[in-house]
Amino acid sequence: MKISRIFEFLQDEKGIFSSTRLVFIIWSIGMLVCWIIMSIEAKQFVPIPSEAMWILLSLMTGKAIQKFGECGEKPKSSDSAAAASGGDGGKPPEKAKIA
């Protein structure tokens, strides 16, 4: 697996690294490793503590809320003015000169 693919997963749609995704991945991998080690030592599957599950659930919920907030962003007023006027920065159209 390429390292760049891992970095792509940690970036949002704008290409900015997401600390929320990083924390979620670290907690998920950490919980999985601890559960595997505890299960190997006990020689049976051990239950995952509910406190750890609540932490993971809160991280997932936080990411979902953050994603919902990012999708609901409105364009800046200068961007919407430029788009409404044909992309020329909100300037009124010039009149054609008749020769």
Q: Explain this structure to me?
A:
It is a single chain. The chain is mostly helical. It has a domain at 19-64. It has four helices and no strands. The radius of gyration is 24 Å and the shape is elongated.
In short:
This protein has 99 residues and is mainly α. Helix content is 62%, strand content 0%. The chain starts with a helix and ends in a 15-residue tail after the last helix.
Mean pLDDT: 74
Please state the overall shape, judged from the principal axes of the Cα atoms: elongated
Q: What's the order of the H and E elements?
A: HHHH
Counting copies of identical and different chains, the oligomeric state is single chain
* Class from secondary-structure proportions: mainly alpha
Largest sheet: none
Separation of the first and last Cα atoms:
66 Å
Please compute the radius of gyration using only Cα atoms: 24 Å
Helix content: 55-70%
Question: Approximately what portion of the residues adopt beta-strand conformation?
Answer: under 5%
* Total helical segments: 4
Number of strands: 0
Low-confidence stretches: 77-85
Keywords:
single chain; 99 residues; mainly alpha; elongated
Task: Annotate the secondary structure layout.
Blueprint: H1 3-9, H2 19-42, H3 50-71, H4 77-84
Helix pairs in contact: 2-3
